[in-house]
User: Fold these one by one.
Assistant:
Number 1:
Amino acid sequence: MKRFIHTTLHPEVYHGHGKRPPYFEGWYFKMIDAAEQHKLAVIPGIFIGREHSEAFVQVLDGVSGESSYHVYPAEQFSASWEAFDLCIGPNRFTTDSISLNIEDDKHPLRGELRFKDITPFPVTPTSPGIMGWYGWLPFMECYHGLISLDHVMEGTLELSGRRIDFSDGRGYLEKDWGQAFPSAYIWQQTNHFGTYGTCLSASIAMIPNLGRTFRGFIVAFWHNTQLYRFATYTGARTEKLELSDEHLFWVVSDGQQRLEMYSERAAGGLLHAPIRTEMHRRVNETLQATVSVRLTTRAGQVLFNAIGRHAGLEVYGDLETLLRS
């Protein structure tokens, strides 16, 4: 019980100590350089199965769309019990740094980055992170955590022989853990608006819970040190959810504000995602989408209206059910 309380109140730490299969846990580092010419997502994690377990580091080049999946024996995964500090082979990941030494004939990746001005999502006993009170439920299929909505980076990486300076670039950090990804979901994120200090992270999915499935969503919009939260558990609702091959139009609202998100989809690369037996579900993710965000009061006063660049966007699964629910 003590361990469960600690991990619930610290979503960033490794939750998998002592977990039975099937179980996965992965952290998502998004990195864009100051000139906005290079975009990378690095995803370390572990999958624990009944017959096979493996640690991994995934890399997505957001410009070329190339992705690579680097497998390590599960025995080469180690993580602190108290803080977010994990090693996968020669690679180390913490809340404020990454150190990479991925040997690969096609996509070697080496270097170190440091993060500063971390902007964590608030955690309280009654609402331990972006999932709110759902974070206390011990039987959810998948959990989600926002570790840093926005931060500054320092350092360089060398990818496939190209040296990339990420100094003064912007980063974002989140994670997922549980038994498997939802059967259908939409996720998008951007922290590249006209000025610093703004971030959107939004997802909607089919959620299994106590023998039934419902459509749930969590949206965090952070602007000028103020956090606007729209979620199923807050009583907010989805007014519109429309999807085409080119666009996503999603509107959420509560008793105080209304948030419109109009996204232009773009080509991306394929990533591995967990099912209950393995890490072999292939999900298309782009880092080149754009999201027009408009936040208004219920009376119509415009609080924010701008376009987010270099947006991460994933659309996966039984979308007909997701859109219809």
Number 2:
Amino acid sequence: MAAVRGFKIEPKQLRIYGLIGSVVGIYLAYLLNAITGTTIFSFVGALAAILGAVMGANAVRRVCAYGIGTGVPSIGMLSLGMGVVAVLFGLSIAEQMGIGVLGVIIALVYSMIFGYVVGLIANRVMGFNIPVMEEGLTDLSGAGTLAILGWSFAISGSLGYADIVNSVINTGFLAIIFICGGLAILHPFNANLGPDEKQDRTLVNAVMVGGMSTIATGICALMTLGLAAGMVQIVVGFAVWYYFFVWYYRLAARDASAVVGTGLLPPTVQ
């Protein structure tokens, strides 16, 4: 097999990519929709959400590498839960203050403070004593917020509090975002657990799952934004998923001791 592209990104550098990339992406989607008078560019918000999810996936691998592998689903769901609270708080407060467009920034700042406090409680009160817990939960809370915001924008085409409530929460699509976002953040480390877990394979897996999540939100967008905006998002999500699935397969083959056929699945155990 030909050489496979690998990479290693420092946590601080990845944090910059995740935070700045996601925020810029969400605002870019907002501006492009406003300039064109359409919702066709809502898919850019979904791509911005993937950047946040990748940052979160790296935070999961850093925290859970200390031996709390069974806590991966819990910490992933925690990040999305903090994200939902932060998004609703940030957008609502921004609208009440008459600065609705700054809701993204307010939500992100609030969420990261929220995450840091939870990390302090986990280490100082609950006694986890994990050196990167505060840093990890700060990143995770921010990642969850950006994932919720990006994919909510992809479905609603708006940063307005009322629009997101109507298109995302009242329709029940928040549940899809919650599960898809949780999978993009927590699943990659679980899928690559073991002594040979590598950052590049785990993060490529995160982008791959983010592409699948974008397909899911694109299906939702068909019902909220219409055929054109929804189909563009589905096509983009499929392209992201396919490209990174192939990359992930090659990385998995690179790191495997052997790739063999296993034959037919065994019969169901009675």
